[in-house]
Structure formats: C-alpha cells, structure tokens
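Chapter summary example: a protein plus nickel (II) ion.
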Amino acid sequence: MNVLHLGNEVLRQKAVSVPEVTDEIRELIRDMFVTMKEEDGIGLAAPQVGQSLRLFIVKADDGIDRVFINPQILQTSTEMCSYEEGCLSIPSVYEDVVRPERITVQALNERGRPFTLEAEGLLARVIQHENDHLDGILFIDRIDPKTKAKVEQKFAQRAEKQGL
Ligand code: NI
C-alpha cells in the first residue's frame, strides 16, 4: 500500500467509525501491517493508506502487534512528557512533541471484541499520535507554528516538483 504524504487531503479528514469488523477490515489490517513493516514504522493509521476509517495499528518497543478499531482515549495523565516524533506521512521530519505520559484507551480488536489498555512510555506516545490521525491531526500541529509552516512549505514544494 502507498503511504500518503503531507499535503494529501485524506490526512486532514475526520475518519468515520468502522461499522462492523468484517473480513474486509481484517484484510486491510493485514495489508497495513505489511506496509508498516516495509516502511519501518511503529504505528500506522488507516487514513495514511487512504482509508478514512477509525482504525490504527501499533508495534511499539514491546514487539506486540496491536490493533485499535474505533478507539477512544478515556483518560490521560496530568503529567506530560516530551519526545521526538516522526511520521511515515511526513518523512525525514522529527520534532519534539509534548503529550500526556500515560493514557487509558478503549477500542475493538481485530475480532471485534472490546478491550481497555493502560499505556505509558513509547506505547502511550504512539497510540496518541495514531489516534490524532483519525481526527485529521498531524504531529506538526502540536509543534511551534513557525517550524510547522516550514515543514508544510517544504512538502508543498516537493509536491509541485513531482507535478502532484
Ligand atoms: Ni503519523
């Protein structure tokens, strides 16, 4: 699957809930895991592969393949932390982003079963980053506006060069 880059409007749309976890959805998830591995990522949201659905996958430092369908972040810690983020949709850009250190998230798994997960560290970080994608939010929206403008300009120029 092709990963969409900054400038593609699908990345800015609010994704819709997955009505039912069907075989088609499971196939999409399998394809997304292949793509994430190929691209050497630790998280991938459906809108990044052009599917505006509330679904993302994560493989953080614990090495576990995790699927989140129709996720909801129920709780966030008041404690915040800063971490350098990147995104497969914004290649070669890495910036520090401040987010809550711990979260509680509820979602459906690939079998359509609900689960609740308390996460901290890198896992909490990736879940929040991917969850943002479902609302059309990118990590550059959470950094200093001047840096964001530079990144957007760079990607606009690149798109123009490629005739997109
Ligand atoms: Ni991302």
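Key point: The chain is about 30% helix and 25% strand.
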